[in-house]
Amino acid sequence: xxxxxxxxxxxxxxxxxxxxxxxxxxxxxxxxxxxxxxxxxxxxxxxxxxxxxxxxxxxxxxxxxxxxxxxxxxxx
Amino acid sequence: xxxxxxxxxxxxxxxxxxxxxxxxxxxxxxxxxxxxxxxxxxxxxxxxxxxxxxxxxxxxxxxxxxxxxxxxxxxxxxxxxxxxxxxxxxxxxxxxxxxxxxxxxxxxxxxxxxxxxxxxxxxxxxxxxxxxxxxxxxxxxxxxxxxxxxxxxx
Lengths: 76, 154
What we know:
The structure holds two protein chains of two kinds. By secondary structure, chain A is of the alpha+beta class. Chain A is 30% helix and 34% strand. A four-stranded mixed β-sheet of chain A has the order 1-2-4-3, with helices on one face. In chain A, helix 1 links the parallel strand 1 and strand 2 (34-39). Chain B has one domain (4-153): Hypothetical Protein Ychn, Chain: A (3-Layer(aba) Sandwich). In chain B, helix 1 runs parallel beside helix 4. Chain B has helices at residues 18-29, 70-73, 78-92, 98-107, 116-121, 138-145, and strands spanning 4-9, 33-38, 111-115, 134-136, 150-153. Chain B is of the alpha/beta class. The A-B interface holds A 12-17, 19-20, 23, 40-41, 51, 54-55 and B 22, 25-26, 29-31, 93-96, 104, 108.
């Protein structure tokens, strides 16, 4: 997995909390910085794709690691 | 220009409080300009002191821990019990509580409008409802809804 600037642990949270928390965390980053999100909500896989598509941020990676979903989002 | 999303929230139970707050907060996070018009029982979602309940009466789709005749569901204390069980489940599944979700929705910049006619009809006081919200009528809502990309009735 490549580098990141900040981590958001959204484990145990359900829709729409992972997205809302990610939005908040991204607001603290500068353009080009990367947010790593860890989630357990299976719905988050499609939701983070849709989030990236609609906000212009880039979903660099979307992986599953030991039962958790891990996303790398690069701020636009 | 930002997309616009208009919602009418008409229901005042714990379960039906979720759709307007989930969709509006998420839409705001995606960059939408969102307004919710709260009317009739939906005004309960704006109360400073939230006291939302859930009932299985008239709702045969609600999952029950055990089969129960409708008459028994109407017994005193059943609604309080179902509400407590639902809140427990919400917490256990990592679903946001309504007070938390409502705070996030406000923080995300969603605009709330309370229906003044229903406020009068139900003898609500502005002081019972959240500070900083707008009061208006059908024309107020339609002005925004008329320019919106999505409009939903909930």
